[in-house]
Amino acid sequence: MSTAHDFLAAVRVAAEVRELRPDYRALLVVAEGLRPGPSDDWSESLLADAEAHPAPLDDPHVLAWAEAFRAFGAKPQRTRPSVAALLRRVPGLPRVDRLTDAYNAVSVRHAVPVGGEDLDAYVGAMRLVRARGDEPFETTAAGEPVVDSPEPGEVVWRDDAGVTCRRWNWRQTTRTRLTTATSRAVFVLDALGPMSDEALAAAGDALLTALATGSPQATIASRTV
């Protein structure tokens, strides 16, 4: 089991991704000792506040993510960046589990794609690359588990076992997704040029505050890549 410091230190963004979007930054947060579980009053209050004060769907940062998707061949109207997909569901945001609800609330309030993954399910280092097209991606279809693969050139997060998130922040694998038993997690906040470093830090602070409130015993570390 790697420490939070070791895990964060090993995260890499490949040169081919930086060439595609030189303005990309990722704020990564590792939290241990989290209180997992189904949606509850705490997570409901976060989502209700986000539904009452959402970022606009035409926020420049949201629109920039559509451009980033087009740059590697994805169609953002068909496979939307996660923040755009969430904002389109306001005021009917999904209630998933207390940790997923927390990061979804931050995403909607701050107009930033946010993902969360179970740290104990990771195999090796976390890195953002452009896919070859043969990497395994564990997901579901018609309610049944299947193994899919990304398109060649698609921007994906991956570890040694395969793809953990397709199309930058579109869909996470079932293998590393958060569950009601997750107590160690890594969260990723994705930023492009229209989001300033200060705004990214504010979104990160909002997530850290939420996690600390919902899991007072948690220890939290972060790194910007």
Spatial strand arrangement across the major sheet = 1-4-7-8-9
Q: From N to C, what is the helix and strand string?
A: HEHEHHHHEEEEEEEEHE
CA-CA gap between termini: 22 Å
Class per helix and strand makeup: alpha+beta
How confident is the prediction overall: mean pLDDT?
A: 97
User: How much of the sequence is in beta strands?
Assistant: 15-25%
List the total number of helices: 7
Count of extended strands? 11
Shape: globular
| Biggest sheet descriptor | 5 strands, mixed
What value does the Rg take, in angstroms? 16 Å
Spans of 5+ residues with little confidence (pLDDT < 50)? none
List the helices and strands and how they pair.
Layout: H1 4-10, E1 12-13, H2 15-20, E2 25-32, H3 41-52, H4 60-71, H5 82-87, H6 98-110, E3 114-118, E4 127-130, E5 137-141, E6 144-148, E7 155-159, E8 162-166, E9 171-172, E10 184-191, H7 197-214, E11 219-224
Parallel strand pairs: 1-4
Antiparallel strand pairs: 2-10, 2-11, 3-10, 4-7, 5-6, 7-8, 8-9
Helix pairs in contact: 3-6, 6-7
Quick summary:
This protein is an alpha+beta fold and 225 residues long. It is built from 7 helices and 11 strands. A hairpin with a 4-residue loop joins strand 8 (162-166) and strand 9 (171-172).
